[in-house]
Amino acid sequence: MSGRERILGRVRRALADVPADDPSYEQAVARDYLRAHGARSAAETVHLLAANLADYRALVHRCSEVELPSLIAGLLTDRGATSVLVPPGLDEGWLAATDVTRVADRADSTPHELDGVDSVVTACAVAIAETGTIVLDGAPDQGRRRITLVPDHHICVVRVPDQVVSGVPQALERLDPARPLTWISGPSATSDIELDRVEGVHGPRTLEVVLVG
C-alpha cells in the first residue's frame, strides 16, 4: 500500500459517519467577510501596494512600458550582475537593453547552479495592495518556483493597474489553487530569539518590484 492510499484511507474512515445531508464546506463556511477594506481608486490601490512593499523592505520602482528594458538593465548593472535567470515565457523585450548572460530555467538545474546565478527577472500573477504581497503561480513568464527562491536578487515586474487588487479575497478569485503558488511579502527574512533580523535565509536577500503602467 502506498502512502497516498494510506492517507486517502484515513480520510475515508474519518468521513464515514458524516451524514449524507451534512452541509458542504462551501455552505458551512461563511463568506460574508469584506473583500476589500475601504473604497479606493485604481491609482490609490497601486499607491498602497507600493507603500506596503516598501514597508517590507522591497525596493519599488515605477516606469512605463517603454522605459522598462532600460530600467531592468540599470538594476542589473547596479547590482553588478553578470548572469540572470530567465523564465521561458518572459517577454524578450524586457531584457533587450542588457547584455548580461542569460541562464535558462531548466528542470535539471541543481541548487548549486542556481546559487551561482546573480539575479532573476520574472513577471507575477497578481499583487495585493493591502498586504504588500506579490503572488507567482509558475506561469511561463514566472518559471519554476525554485528560480525565485535560490538566487539572491529577484526583479519582479507587476503590470499596473491590471494585476493589482485591494485584498486577499480578490486575489484568490484570480488564482488557480492547483498551481504552485508562491506568496512573497518583501525579501526573505527571519529573526532569532533576540529578534535580530537576518535576510536571505530562505529566498532572495533583495527583492526589487517594478510597477509598469
**How many DSSP-defined strands?**
12
Q: Briefly note the CATH topology name.
A: Rossmann fold
Uncertain spans: none
* Oligomerization: single chain
Radius of gyration: 20 Å
* Integer tally of domains: 1
Helix/strand/pairing class, anyone? alpha/beta
H-E string: HHHEHEEHEEEEEHEEEE
Largest sheet: 6 strands, parallel
Shape: globular
Mean pLDDT: 92
Walk across the major sheet and give the strand order.
1-12-7-4-2-3
CATH class term: Alpha Beta
Layout of SSEs?
Blueprint: H1 3-14, H2 25-28, H3 42-55, E1 59-63, H4 68-79, E2 83-86, E3 101-104, H5 111-115, E4 119-122, E5 126-128, E6 133-136, E7 153-159, E8 164-165, H6 168-174, E9 182-184, E10 189-191, E11 197-199, E12 206-212
Parallel strand pairs: 1-12, 2-3, 2-4, 4-7, 5-8, 7-12
Antiparallel strand pairs: 5-6, 6-9, 10-11
Explain the overall architecture:
Residues 103-212 form the LUD domain. With 213 residues, the protein is α/β, with parallel strands linked by helices. The chain has one domain: Rossmann fold, CATH 3.40.50.10420. It is 25% helix and 23% strand. Strand 10 and strand 11 form a beta hairpin. 31% of the residues are buried. The mean pLDDT is 92.
